[in-house]
TrEMBL record:
Membrane-spanning segments: none
Protein name from the UniProt record: Addiction module antidote protein
Organism: Polynucleobacter paneuropaeus
Origin superkingdom: Bacteria
CDD domains: HTH_XRE (cd00093)
PANTHER family (alphabetical): SSL7038 PROTEIN
All copies of domain HTH cro/C1-type, residue ranges: 52-95
Molecular function terms, GO-annotated: DNA binding
Higher taxonomy: Bacteria, Pseudomonadati, Pseudomonadota, Betaproteobacteria, Burkholderiales
Length: 102
C-alpha cells in the first residue's frame, strides 16, 4: 500500500491578488475575537505573499523588525500596522457594529 504524502498547508500560496489578501485579512479580523496577535500573524502571511523585502522597503521598516512584529509572538504598534497596510496596498475601514448606539 502506498503512503499518502501530505504537504503542510500554507495560506501564502493562495494569496495571489490584492482582493484575496483583503478578503483574507477581513476574515481574520472577523474571526479574531479581539486577538491582536492573530491579526498580526495574518498581516505577516500577506506580507510574505507579497514579499517581505518589498513590504519592508515600502513601509520603511527593516525586514527583521517586520518578521518580529508580524510573527504573532508580539503585538505590533498601531503605527507599524498602518505602515504595513499601506505597503500592502490595503486600507483600514470601519463600520458600526450591532453594539453601536443610534
Amino acid at each position: 500500500m502506498k503512503k499518502t504524502i501530505i504537504s503542510p498547508y500554507d495560506v501564502v500560496e493562495h494569496l495571489r491578488t490584492p482582493k484575496e489578501m483583503a478578503l483574507y485579512l477581513q476574515a481574520c479580523i472577523e474571526e479574531s475575537n479581539g486577538d491582536a496577535a492573530f491579526i498580526a500573524r495574518a498581516l505577516g502571511d500577506i506580507a510574505r505573499a507579497k514579499g517581505m523585502a518589498q513590504v519592508a522597503k515600502e513601509s520603511g521598516l527593516s525586514r527583521e523588525s517586520l518578521y518580529k512584529a508580524l510573527s504573532g509572538d508580539r503585538i505590533p504598534g498601531f503605527d507599524t500596522v498602518l505602515k504595513v497596510l499601506a505597503a500592502l496596498g490595503l486600507s483600514l475601514h470601519t463600520k458600526p457594529t450591532s453594539k453601536a448606539r443610534a
